[in-house]
Amino acid sequence: MAEFKPKPAKELAPRDKGEPLPTSKANLLKASKARKISEMGFEDRDVRQVPRAVQDLSVSDLEDFAKKMAGLPSTNPNVDRLTIEDIQGIEYLFAEEKSLVLTRVATQISNGGLKASDVDVSCCCCTPCCCCAAADVDPIVA
Fold it and tell me: Is 70 exceeded by the pLDDT of residue 108?
């Protein structure tokens, strides 16, 4: 399975707290959302196993896919043309990371470090695209 190599936290855009971002932070956030799956640090052999449509999806596309899977309408053509094979490719790449995130959160809850109400995880338990989106931000809000 692919070894996920996320960017260091200092290279990621901060979570939006509702206040306007300075221009440099806004540009960093925009660049982060434009990052493609093929640029996310997966092993080349794993990336080559998924369809080109999956390799070219951006974080923003994956967030839109998560919304579509939640029943919201999609206006993103990259999302609307995904096939079952494409969705399986997304799951293949992100399954391990999804499992690690959920295990880490469950461990922190069972150790008393967190209450279940302290956890804000995107719906990565139901769709692989949510996991991708969650991988770009800290899924735990303390």
Answer: yes
